[in-house]
Amino acid sequence: MLLSFGAVAVLLAGCAAPSPQGGNAPEPQDAVADSTAMSTTLDYIEAGLPDLEGASLAFIVECATQNAFCQTRWEGAQDAAEAVGAKITLFDAGFDPNAQLAQTQDAILQDFDGYILSPVADATGCANFELLQETGKPVVNINSPMCGNADYTEGTAGFVAMQTESFFLEHVENAFSLCEGECEAIAVGGFIGSDLFTRWENAIQRALESYPNVTLVSDQPGNFDPAAALTVVQDALLANPDAEIVVSSWDDMTRGVEEGIRAAGKVPGEDVRIYSVGGTDYGVGQVEAGAWDSTTILLPYEESYYGIVQLARAIDTGEMTPGFTYLAESPLVLDGPGSLFITVDNADGFTPEY
Predict the structure, then answer these.
(1) Per residue in 298-310, is it b (16+ CB within 10 Å) or e — as a string?
(2) What's the rounded Cα separation, in Å, for the pair 257 and 247?
(3) Is the full-model pTM beyond 0.85?
(4) Is residue 23 pLDDT above 80, yes or no?
(5) pLDDT score of 341 more than 60
(6) Which domains does the chain have, with CATH numbers?
(7) What values do phi and psi take at 242, rounded to 5?
(8) Which end of the chain has fewer CB atoms at under 10 Å, N or C?
(9) How much is the pLDDT for 28?
(10) Average pLDDT, stretch 26-34?
């Protein structure tokens, strides 16, 4: 889930060192990709999708219009529904868990043939899933795990996603692994209190354990807001002028990271290296221009498309797709750049979808 920019007031804590979450080491949440789930989904597409003859699908999600990620994901859902001959109805919670509960109850009353659920939050999403499960209709979970699970939740018809704790760990460890010798780092995340931010912070703390040569000198929320990120990074660099890298959790916010580096009198890509998340058109362009070292791919279109395919399979055949369908294993990655991390060396093998 990527929150809408400006949805919450910007609360900055200056340029204090880590961590916004406190000192206790988190319990690891290791998501494990299931290659069988991916291959089953791809094989089902390759064999020819069914005609569900107007079956009704509910798309119950945290967002659909609020930013480019959400918009692209909704496009993927609509295209997949059309491909399987289904009618799809959007329930957009606007990142509000109370709204998502009301929409879940409404969807149940409308008696859909199947449900896609992208939860606003782990606990409330789990409660909504349990309500949907009582209908006896298949439910596919996309984007964000729920019910305290690192990835797939038993009883769902499938789980398609990227942004697990393990995904963020891959991202941060990639950045840290490129530090030579002692290295000072700055981290800029989303909204404190969100599940996404918690997974981001847990990943950072775990990466620091693996790379003791890296010192995190600033770890602050950027609220997915470029202006907030600019302030965070400028302040952090003025207080810690030897910092070499910045890890950021969203490409649009990284626009502000880049400007914060410039505002501190440094050159992005030369004095300070940037590692972002998104794989957006803008982010890939900045990598190709040399301002960013990498952007880590997200695939919102495939997230919903594959989710609808798994739901169609459950409706058509009664067969579930258990396990974590990790989009890092999708053909767009494996047959394209060959890596989640888009750099100047492999950018020509990837076409951004948003």
Answers:
(1) bbbbbbbbbbbbb
(2) 9
(3) yes
(4) no
(5) yes
(6) 49-162+299-322 (3.40.50.2300), 165-297+339-349 (3.40.50.2300)
(7) -90, 0
(8) C
(9) 80
(10) 86
